[in-house]
Amino acid sequence: MIRLYGEKRANLVRVFAARLRSVAEAEDLVQDLFLKVQALGELEVEGDGSALLFRMANNLMLDRLRSQARAGARDENWRGLQTTTLGDQPVADAPSAEDVVAGRQRLDVMMATLETLPTQVAQAFTLHKLDGLSHAETAVAMGVSRSAIEKYVSAALKALMAKLP
Amino acid sequence: MTRSQTDIEVAIDWLVLLQGDSVTEDDWRAFDAWLTASSAHAVAYDQAQAFDQRLDLDARRVDRAPAVAPVAATVSTNLVALRPTRRVWLWSAGSAIAAALVAGLVLLPGSGLLGGRETRYVAGVGERRTIVLEDGTRIELNAASRLTVRFERNARHVRMDDAQAFFDVAKDARRPFLIEAGDTQVRVVGTRFDVRHRDGQVAVAVQRGLVEVRPASAAPIRLRAGQGLSHVEGQDDARVAVVPVDEVTGWRQGRLIYRDRPLSEIVGDLNRLFPRPVKLADARAADMRLSGVLIVDEQDAMVGRLSHLLPVRTTTTNDAIVIRAR
């Protein structure tokens, strides 16, 4: 199991980074998983050991999400991004005028690109990315299936990735 | 996911699928198989993920007004305006990029000690230069690198000081191409490979052909395409392994690709790209390990992405960026 963990570690981080929207949290989770795997010792696993690893990691993730007020933690992360501490003083990370211009240009490209896309694609992307709805919530809001939302978000990302640096 | 799609498009499909609300074991198995099928897949996926995180960062700074209530029943009938009034809080810097674009290949022809002409090539911080030598050999010099070239009748010599370079050596069986990187000698006839000589360590990765490396006093080691060697200066041994050469040479395409590397090394690379120094405040941060792709663009943006990939906090002042463990 430990060997298998070693082989699958990087891929597990990728999956859970997407699930948790944070590579750091995924790294943390997969590190926790290691402790569980270690506890299993030299146990030989019947069947697909890699599926077991995934299930264990998934359970760990669900445990974590249950035990923390997720939205609160996210807000905290967000505050952490906007402010930094200099010495012990929290300092607002105010962007310079030049930086704001560069940022606005980037955002303008994003918005302009969205406008060239089919309405549903742009709407799904806006609801999901900018308003932070989950796929399921976006699906309910737009009255379409979740797989349709995934298709729309995918299409928007591809278009944006082609346009933005 | 059809064949006509590029890796990056398939990677985006995967990313979106995995961000969905229910991911099954079958999804995981299929994703794992896709990643394992080619190292290019993992690179594409990591790129898509980095891009997506950047977008999330941008999106968070869009203060959309009025805020849309979650799952508002009216949304489906009332299309969300694409250009609402908004405040923008982006700080991606444009200033550092200018530094990355200043050219400056310094040529200092000097008189070689052994008769041959000696030419010194320097790429400064943030510069990347391609040199074509008189025999047709191409050398791509990474940022903050220095090397000296000396051609003689019987051999072609390169001495690498603190440097990383990718070599495409023109074939000349009568004049072997010899590289000296610290205490390590690399010998080739004609081939493509990368040599990194930094911080007392030498790493060679071979893309095509055969390369002979002699670390310090050890016996010469022959590397084939796809193999790499790493060696700590002053030691008698070296490690040979199969290496993802495309990843090692990612810097040629403006991508820094790391597999389980310490943050101290990544900061070292950043400091070769930008004049404003990045400093590590504590050992805990220095020892953090990163796997992922960093796209080389602007310093602030790169450091911002780092703080997304690792539990660190950054403080920016006029003359430095300080990274500390969160």
By CATH reckoning, the class of the largest domain in chain B would read Mainly Beta
Q: Into which percentage range does the β-strand content of chain A fall?
A: under 5%
- Number of H- or I-type helical stretches of chain A: 8
Overall pLDDT metric of chain B: 78
Derived from helix and strand composition plus strand pairing, the structural class of chain A reads: mainly alpha
What is the CATH architecture assignment of the largest domain in chain B? Sandwich
Total E-strand runs of chain A: 2
Gross morphology of chain A is elongated
Helix content of chain B: 25-40%
Order of helices and strands of chain A: HHHHEEHHHH
Overall number of domains of chain B:
3
Taking the sheet with the most strands of chain B, its summary is: 9 strands, mixed
Number of helices of chain B: 8
- Assembly of the depicted chains: heterodimer
Mean pLDDT of chain A: 74
Description:
About 17% of the residues of chain A have low confidence. Chain A has 2 domains: 71 residues; 67 residues, Arc Repressor Mutant, subunit A (Orthogonal Bundle), CATH 1.10.10. In chain A, a hairpin with a 2-residue loop joins β1 and β2. A two-stranded antiparallel sheet of chain A has the order 1-2. With 165 residues, chain A is mainly alpha-helical. Chain A is built from 8 helices and 2 strands, in the order ααααββαααα. In chain A, α6 crosses α7 and α6 packs across α8. The termini of chain A are far apart. Chain B has 326 residues and is of the alpha+beta class. Chain B has 3 domains: 61 residues, no CATH class; 151 residues, Jelly Rolls (Sandwich), CATH 2.60.120; 72 residues, 3-Layer(bab) Sandwich (Phage tail protein beta-alpha-beta fold). Chain B has 8 helices and 23 strands. In chain B, the strands form 5 sheets. In chain B, strands 3, 4, 5, 8, 9, 11, 12, 15 and 16 form a 9-stranded mixed beta sheet that branches. The longest helix of chain B is centred in the first third of the chain and has 22 residues. Chains A and B meet through α1, α2, α3, α4 and β1 of A and α1, α2, α3, α8 and β22 of B.
